[in-house]
């Protein structure tokens, strides 16, 4: 395996961040290491680092098996670590005094550590990454760990602070136990780990956090094979810049999971089952809308195509037609209507889809969810195609910018009207952003609050941010200082993925 398949280790944070961010990051790393020493009385051996992400396009389709296009951001989770061979205890502190210090002990090779997902405690995320990594490493006596965390990804904002945390704790646990798994393995461990904290998530965030490269977004394919491809944005004139703005509506995905996130996962799974039944594909047991699509085209003819993109477009367009024909109840299904439609009893349906992650609803919106998933997958493919077809000299930048912006706007409309994962503030903020000059603006991440991402001409970025501050933030939050405002709206360049920072070999008084 090439070096690129493993998390890079660096002695210099210049390898991690863009030049303009280095002075603030040097200060941050220095403070983290000093604080570590003042808490524990000795030096950290290394810092594990994994970033948050902003999803450019492709919302709520990763768990339906379709590709997405996120990029890592320079806001990240750092965990400074020292180890000991004297015990297998883990101490976790946070530089932010809001988060109280926690401690737990490794139980045994099978149980590792208990996580109570009914108690919403910040250290659960650490435990989740720790547990997932040790399940894979199968150690009898893992190293004891002293940890100090510093997170700069806003939480509940759709920038994936939870995944950044879980990925970092998995990596910290791996390095503390002197192992070196591949990035692919770490991603799969982090995806499984995050499910310990109560959401039945897809794999976009962990992949973006671990695998991203600076200067590019990442096209992530999950099915039939997990694969990532860096996608460079077109070199338009003016250049493209992405601005993230936080609605300040905090969406706690874990708390709302039974009526929001996990319910959507169930609705897309039942949509797949219903389509599979109608298309006589049940024998093959497809689980996701992507699997239904692939199976359908193993036996049905499709128009000849000249490129992979064209094949995607033909297939997804056909699936949208089939959804229109075959999912008849536009207004949604009750549990009993749904059971009848898929040919199962209510109990069977419940056991299959709703027992592990409980959900609460009277109506399941199967049709609108399926329309969103297939149409959003189509937008991702088109977005990638516009990027890749415009890598050389660009004749008409305006046209390219309009095409990309339009796809982002359509994504927002679909999230609002078909997936029902937007909210009043997200709708308002995306409108303000478009009026302020964004080519496209949409919610990013799970939605129901959190952040928007807007594509803005780089030469207008400053004016754009000022206008949005004036139109959205200053009227709503008149007491915000300039520093607070800069924390809720900021531009974001594609950033590098996970790193291990090891400045020197610290002398560990506990003989780690
Ligand atoms: P965020 O925004 O981090 O909650 C969630 C899921 C993603 C993806 C998006 C919606 C997790 C860890 N993350 O992201 O996999 O489904 O929603 O596109 O579950």
Provide key terms for this protein.
512 residues, alpha+beta, 7-stranded mixed beta sheet, 4-stranded antiparallel beta sheet, 16 helices, 43% helix, globular, disordered C terminus, binds 2-acetamido-2-deoxy-1-O-phosphono-alpha-D-galactopyranose, ATP-binding, GHMP_kinase_C_sf, GHMP_kinase_C_dom
Number of helices, where a helix is a run of at least 4 consecutive DSSP H or I residues? 16
Outline? globular
**What share of the residues lie within helices?**
40-55%
Overall mean pLDDT? 94
Uncertain stretches of 5 or more adjacent residues: 505-512
* Spatial strand sequence of the major β-sheet: 1-13-2-3-6-4-5
Distance between the termini: 28 Å
* Beta content: 15-25%
| Alpha-carbon Rg, integer | 23 Å
Structural class: alpha+beta
Protein name: Galactokinase
EC number: 2.7.1.6
InterPro entries: Galactokinase, Galactokinase_CS, GalKase_N, GHMP_kinase_C_dom, GHMP_kinase_C_sf, GHMP_kinase_N_dom, GHMP_knse_ATP-bd_CS, Mevalonate/galactokinase
Organism: Basidiobolus ranarum
Fold and architecture overview:
With 512 residues, the protein is α+β, with helices and mostly antiparallel strands. The protein is 43% helix and 16% strand. It has helices at 22-40, 123-137, 161-176, 183-194, 204-211, 253-256, 261-278, 289-299, 308-326, 335-342, 346-353, 366-389, 397-417, 424-435, 461-476, 482-488, and strands at 9-10, 46-57, 69-84, 89-94, 102-105, 144-151, 217-221, 227-231, 240-246, 440-443, 451-457, 489-492, 499-501. The strands form 3 sheets. Strands 1-13-2-3-6-4-5 form a 7-stranded mixed β-sheet, sandwiched between helices. A 4-stranded antiparallel β-sheet has the order 10-11-9-12. A hairpin with a 7-residue loop joins β4 and β5. α2 packs across α3 (161-176) and α9 (308-326) runs antiparallel to α12 (366-389). The longest helix is centred in the C-terminal third of the chain and has 24 residues, at 366-389. 49% of the residues are buried. Residues 55, 59-60, 62-63, 158, 160, 162-163, 194, 199, 201-202, 204-205, 253, 445-446 line the site of 2-acetamido-2-deoxy-1-O-phosphono-alpha-D-galactopyranose.
